[in-house]
Amino acid sequence: MDWMDPMDPMDPMDWMDFQAAFLQTLSIPVHSCPFPVHSRSIPWHLPLHSLQWPRTLRFPRPMSATSSFFLNTISDTLALGARLGAAARAGEVIALCGGLGSGKTHLSKGIVAGLDSPADVTSPTFTLVHEYRGGRLPVFHFDFYRMTSPEEVLALGWDEYLEAGGVCLVEWADLFPALLPAGTAWWRLRLDETGARTAQLLDSPPPPA
Predict the structure, then answer these.
(1) Sequence-ordered alpha helix ranges (H) in 97-188
(2) Where would you tag: which of 2, 81, 122, 158 has the fewest CB atoms within 10 A of its CB?
(3) Which of 181, 178, 187, 190 shows the shortest CA–CA distance to 206?
(4) Under a CB-based contact definition with an 8 Å cutoff, are residues 184 and 107 in contact?
(5) Phi and psi (nearest 5°) for 37?
(6) Alpha-carbon distance 45 to 70, whole Å?
Protein backbone atom coordinates (compact mmCIF):
# COMPACT_ATOMS: atom_id res chain seq x y z
CA MET A 1 0.00 0.00 0.00
CA ASP A 2 1.29 3.46 -0.87
CA TRP A 3 1.21 5.90 2.04
CA MET A 4 0.80 9.64 1.47
CA ASP A 5 1.54 12.59 3.70
CA PRO A 6 -1.23 15.26 3.41
CA MET A 7 1.35 18.01 3.95
CA ASP A 8 3.71 16.91 1.14
CA PRO A 9 3.40 18.55 -2.31
CA MET A 10 2.91 16.26 -5.31
CA ASP A 11 5.77 15.16 -7.53
CA PRO A 12 5.89 17.45 -10.61
CA MET A 13 4.99 14.68 -13.07
CA ASP A 14 2.15 13.44 -10.85
CA TRP A 15 0.95 17.03 -10.60
CA MET A 16 0.78 17.38 -14.42
CA ASP A 17 -1.15 14.14 -14.75
CA PHE A 18 -3.51 15.17 -11.95
CA GLN A 19 -4.27 18.59 -13.47
CA ALA A 20 -4.92 17.06 -16.89
CA ALA A 21 -7.35 14.54 -15.39
CA PHE A 22 -9.00 17.27 -13.30
CA LEU A 23 -9.59 19.49 -16.35
CA GLN A 24 -10.96 16.56 -18.32
CA THR A 25 -13.36 15.69 -15.51
CA LEU A 26 -14.69 19.27 -15.38
CA SER A 27 -14.75 19.64 -19.19
CA ILE A 28 -12.71 22.86 -18.92
CA PRO A 29 -10.72 23.87 -22.05
CA VAL A 30 -7.06 24.49 -21.27
CA HIS A 31 -7.18 28.06 -22.59
CA SER A 32 -9.99 28.99 -20.16
CA CYS A 33 -8.59 27.24 -17.10
CA PRO A 34 -8.53 29.64 -14.10
CA PHE A 35 -5.05 28.49 -13.04
CA PRO A 36 -1.90 27.88 -15.14
CA VAL A 37 -1.78 24.31 -16.36
CA HIS A 38 1.31 22.16 -15.61
CA SER A 39 2.43 24.39 -12.75
CA ARG A 40 2.31 24.19 -8.99
CA SER A 41 -0.39 26.82 -8.94
CA ILE A 42 -2.49 25.07 -6.30
CA PRO A 43 -0.38 24.87 -3.10
CA TRP A 44 -1.32 21.50 -1.60
CA HIS A 45 1.04 22.08 1.29
CA LEU A 46 -1.22 24.82 2.71
CA PRO A 47 -4.47 24.26 4.65
CA LEU A 48 -7.28 24.63 2.14
CA HIS A 49 -9.36 26.96 4.28
CA SER A 50 -6.58 29.53 3.78
CA LEU A 51 -6.86 29.48 -0.02
CA GLN A 52 -9.11 31.51 -2.33
CA TRP A 53 -10.65 29.06 -4.78
CA PRO A 54 -12.60 30.15 -7.91
CA ARG A 55 -16.24 29.85 -6.94
CA THR A 56 -17.03 28.24 -10.31
CA LEU A 57 -14.89 25.22 -9.42
CA ARG A 58 -15.36 22.41 -6.96
CA PHE A 59 -12.30 21.22 -5.13
CA PRO A 60 -11.03 18.03 -6.81
CA ARG A 61 -11.25 14.68 -5.07
CA PRO A 62 -7.90 12.95 -5.61
CA MET A 63 -8.61 10.44 -2.85
CA SER A 64 -10.10 7.02 -3.51
CA ALA A 65 -11.12 4.07 -1.36
CA THR A 66 -8.14 2.70 0.59
CA SER A 67 -6.26 6.02 0.41
CA SER A 68 -4.08 6.20 3.51
CA PHE A 69 -2.25 9.02 5.27
CA PHE A 70 0.38 9.34 7.95
CA LEU A 71 -0.69 12.00 10.46
CA ASN A 72 2.56 12.87 12.16
CA THR A 73 1.29 16.03 13.83
CA ILE A 74 -1.98 17.71 14.77
CA SER A 75 -1.36 20.07 11.84
CA ASP A 76 -1.35 17.06 9.49
CA THR A 77 -4.72 15.95 10.85
CA LEU A 78 -6.21 19.44 10.55
CA ALA A 79 -4.88 19.78 7.00
CA LEU A 80 -6.44 16.48 5.92
CA GLY A 81 -9.72 17.54 7.51
CA ALA A 82 -9.59 20.87 5.67
CA ARG A 83 -9.25 19.01 2.37
CA LEU A 84 -12.31 16.93 3.20
CA GLY A 85 -14.32 19.97 4.26
CA ALA A 86 -13.42 21.93 1.13
CA ALA A 87 -14.66 19.03 -1.01
CA ALA A 88 -17.82 18.26 0.99
CA ARG A 89 -21.23 18.45 -0.66
CA ALA A 90 -24.68 19.00 0.81
CA GLY A 91 -26.05 15.74 2.16
CA GLU A 92 -22.63 14.15 2.63
CA VAL A 93 -21.99 11.83 5.57
CA ILE A 94 -18.45 11.41 6.91
CA ALA A 95 -17.90 8.55 9.36
CA LEU A 96 -14.90 8.74 11.70
CA CYS A 97 -13.93 5.46 13.31
CA GLY A 98 -11.09 4.71 15.69
CA GLY A 99 -10.18 4.32 19.33
CA LEU A 100 -9.75 6.99 21.95
CA GLY A 101 -7.00 9.47 21.07
CA SER A 102 -6.82 8.44 17.40
CA GLY A 103 -7.58 11.96 16.13
CA LYS A 104 -11.31 11.93 15.34
CA THR A 105 -12.06 15.30 16.95
CA HIS A 106 -9.03 17.03 15.42
CA LEU A 107 -10.05 15.72 12.00
CA SER A 108 -13.54 17.06 12.71
CA LYS A 109 -12.06 20.48 13.49
CA GLY A 110 -10.26 20.49 10.16
CA ILE A 111 -13.40 19.48 8.26
CA VAL A 112 -15.45 22.27 9.82
CA ALA A 113 -12.67 24.80 9.10
CA GLY A 114 -12.52 23.55 5.50
CA LEU A 115 -16.21 24.44 5.21
CA ASP A 116 -15.31 28.04 6.13
CA SER A 117 -17.04 27.85 9.49
CA PRO A 118 -15.60 29.83 12.43
CA ALA A 119 -17.17 27.41 14.93
CA ASP A 120 -15.27 26.19 17.97
CA VAL A 121 -15.43 22.43 17.46
CA THR A 122 -15.55 20.08 20.45
CA SER A 123 -16.51 16.43 20.71
CA PRO A 124 -20.26 16.02 21.42
CA THR A 125 -19.62 13.08 23.75
CA PHE A 126 -22.20 14.19 26.33
CA THR A 127 -24.49 16.40 24.24
CA LEU A 128 -24.53 13.71 21.48
CA VAL A 129 -24.85 16.21 18.62
CA HIS A 130 -23.47 19.70 17.89
CA GLU A 131 -24.64 21.96 15.09
CA TYR A 132 -22.16 24.31 13.42
CA ARG A 133 -23.48 27.02 11.13
CA GLY A 134 -22.00 30.10 9.51
CA GLY A 135 -19.95 28.19 6.93
CA ARG A 136 -20.53 27.09 3.36
CA LEU A 137 -22.79 24.29 4.64
CA PRO A 138 -24.21 23.50 8.09
CA VAL A 139 -22.40 20.69 9.91
CA PHE A 140 -24.14 18.22 12.21
CA HIS A 141 -21.51 16.62 14.44
CA PHE A 142 -22.53 13.38 16.17
CA ASP A 143 -20.81 11.14 18.68
CA PHE A 144 -22.23 7.59 19.01
CA TYR A 145 -19.85 6.60 21.82
CA ARG A 146 -22.37 6.82 24.67
CA MET A 147 -25.38 5.64 22.69
CA THR A 148 -26.64 2.17 23.50
CA SER A 149 -29.01 1.39 20.63
CA PRO A 150 -30.00 2.48 17.12
CA GLU A 151 -33.29 3.69 18.55
CA GLU A 152 -31.44 6.19 20.72
CA VAL A 153 -29.74 7.61 17.63
CA LEU A 154 -33.02 7.82 15.72
CA ALA A 155 -34.62 9.63 18.68
CA LEU A 156 -32.18 12.52 18.12
CA GLY A 157 -33.82 13.19 14.77
CA TRP A 158 -31.16 11.28 12.80
CA ASP A 159 -33.26 10.92 9.65
CA GLU A 160 -34.13 14.62 9.67
CA TYR A 161 -30.46 15.57 9.97
CA LEU A 162 -29.61 13.36 6.99
CA GLU A 163 -32.14 15.26 4.88
CA ALA A 164 -31.26 18.76 6.16
CA GLY A 165 -28.85 19.63 3.33
CA GLY A 166 -25.76 19.82 5.47
CA VAL A 167 -22.78 17.61 6.26
CA CYS A 168 -23.22 14.89 8.89
CA LEU A 169 -19.99 14.18 10.73
CA VAL A 170 -20.14 11.07 12.92
CA GLU A 171 -17.55 9.97 15.48
CA TRP A 172 -17.70 6.29 16.51
CA ALA A 173 -19.97 5.65 13.52
CA ASP A 174 -18.86 2.00 13.43
CA LEU A 175 -21.00 1.31 16.52
CA PHE A 176 -24.19 1.57 14.43
CA PRO A 177 -23.07 1.24 10.79
CA ALA A 178 -26.49 0.15 9.53
CA LEU A 179 -27.85 3.65 10.25
CA LEU A 180 -25.47 5.35 7.85
CA PRO A 181 -26.60 5.67 4.22
CA ALA A 182 -24.98 4.30 1.10
CA GLY A 183 -22.21 6.60 -0.09
CA THR A 184 -20.93 7.37 3.41
CA ALA A 185 -17.21 8.22 3.48
CA TRP A 186 -15.76 5.79 6.02
CA TRP A 187 -12.52 6.89 7.67
CA ARG A 188 -10.55 4.63 10.02
CA LEU A 189 -8.09 6.42 12.31
CA ARG A 190 -5.45 4.54 14.23
CA LEU A 191 -3.00 5.30 17.02
CA ASP A 192 -0.29 2.67 17.36
CA GLU A 193 1.89 1.81 20.32
CA THR A 194 4.61 4.23 19.15
CA GLY A 195 2.20 7.17 19.12
CA ALA A 196 2.01 7.31 15.31
CA ARG A 197 -1.38 8.14 13.80
CA THR A 198 -2.78 7.09 10.45
CA ALA A 199 -6.04 7.70 8.59
CA GLN A 200 -7.46 5.42 5.92
CA LEU A 201 -10.45 5.95 3.63
CA LEU A 202 -12.46 2.72 3.33
CA ASP A 203 -15.23 1.61 1.02
CA SER A 204 -17.18 -0.08 3.85
CA PRO A 205 -17.49 0.16 7.64
CA PRO A 206 -14.54 -1.20 9.63
CA PRO A 207 -15.04 -3.56 12.59
CA PRO A 208 -15.75 -1.61 15.82
CA ALA A 209 -12.54 -0.37 17.48
Answers:
(1) 104-114, 150-154, 158-162
(2) 2
(3) 187
(4) no
(5) -75, 150
(6) 14
Are 97 and 204 in contact by the 8 Å Cβ rule? The answer is no
SS3 per-residue string spanning 46-60: CCHHHCCCCCCCCCC
User: What is d(CA 56, CA 58) in angstroms, rounded to the nearest whole number?
Assistant: 7
Q: Bigger pLDDT: 36 or 84? A: 84
Q: List Cβ neighbours of 100 (8 Å cut-off, separation of 6 or more).
A: none
State the Cα–Cα distance between residues 66 and 198, nearest whole angstrom: 12
HSE-up of residue 174 (Cα within 13 Å, Cβ side): 17
Give bridge partners of residue 68 from the DSSP assignment.
200
pLDDT tier at 207, thresholds 50, 70, 90: confident
The verdict on pTM exceeding 0.70 is no
Distances (CA, A) of 208 to 19, 144, 150, 195: 37, 12, 15, 20
Residue 171's DSSP bridge partners are: 96, 143
Q: Residues 128, 153, 158, 92: is their CA dihedral positive or negative?
A: positive
State the average pLDDT over residues 172-190.
93
